[in-house]
Amino acid sequence: MTDGLPTDGVTLGAMLLVAALVGLVVGVLVARRARGVRDAGVHDTTGGALGGGQHHAVPDGVGAVLDALRAGAVVATRSGRVVRANAPATRLGLVRGDRIVNPAVERLVLDAAQDGRQVDEEVEVQRSAVGGATLVLHVRVAVLDAEHVLLIVEDRTDALRLEAVRRDFVVNTSHELKTPVGALSLLAETVEDAADDPETVRRFAGRMRTEAQRLAALVQEIIELSRLQSTDPSREPEHVLVADVVGEAVERSRTAAGARRIAIEAGPVPDAVVLGSHDLLVTAVRNLLDNAVAYSEPGTRVAVGTSVDVAAGTVEVAVVDQGIGIPAEAVPRLFERFYRVDPARSRDTGGTGLGLSIVKHVVADHGGEVSVWSQPGQGSTFTVRLPLADASATEGADR
Question: Are residues 194 and 242 in the same domain?
Fold first, then answer.
């Protein structure tokens, strides 16, 4: 709760907006009373309180102001009885009938009415009556007149989640970069101390090369992920042949797979066309293949299967491995940035923990989804599902 300058993300502009709204609503109320219309009449607390009928307690001018707001807005009596609420307030589940549903929000209304001053606070509320996820709401309450208070509620859930994601990304990136940089520093000192021992210099120079490659791969994937998360409205989607995507991804993964004695087998690919970026889709499929190779044992195989569901208008690309599998508790976190099921194995294989996150973003940008099935000791199957381009585009695409 704040009384002075805006804090904790509350901008001065937002505070001025609330002040302007209070002034505007008070002005409408004063004008109404100047015409001799009293607010002590009958409250419409059925449809009217939520925008479905005549609003006897609050004039139409106030309703028009509230309905123009994106934020949830409620006019209530000082006792907490709702006399007008806009559609966003209803969607947020703030009101039911003529009551404010959430006790915490109702308490803020009563506090503001009792103290006669503006209340500004963040509260957490259940997304639904049966529980589950919560919403973080920024609540402002201001006194309108002797009988009414104005409640403005903004949903801050997504904004706070984004802040947390960015903060975690910076922390994780710093940690991940520090590991190879520190290793390079130590190896350089070792090489310097062993300048008279050519064998030692060669051995540690090789390790330096490995760490440098890991650092370069990490930086490249961070750049790629950042590029995917920044929308480019000028980029026009192109018609992409799924067969070309699968073929190129398989070829680019064969070298790493061969070094581990893992065979990559690709089945027939239907003549399917999607809208998007050829290069990004190749990156997504290749990341799935590289992940499958990294977590498979030598002498096993990785298979790529493609199928079309004409009725659903989708094409699926599945990457199946015979690897170590994934524990059930780890599956929900697989697509998080820097998450690794087995950190030690990732270090051995040079994994950055960003590959699956990039897959998720690429597929989402193409209007699709990615899913995973896995059992420890039985391997894993990652499936990318993408919407097909229209039939005429598919028939006209050049092979």
Answer: no
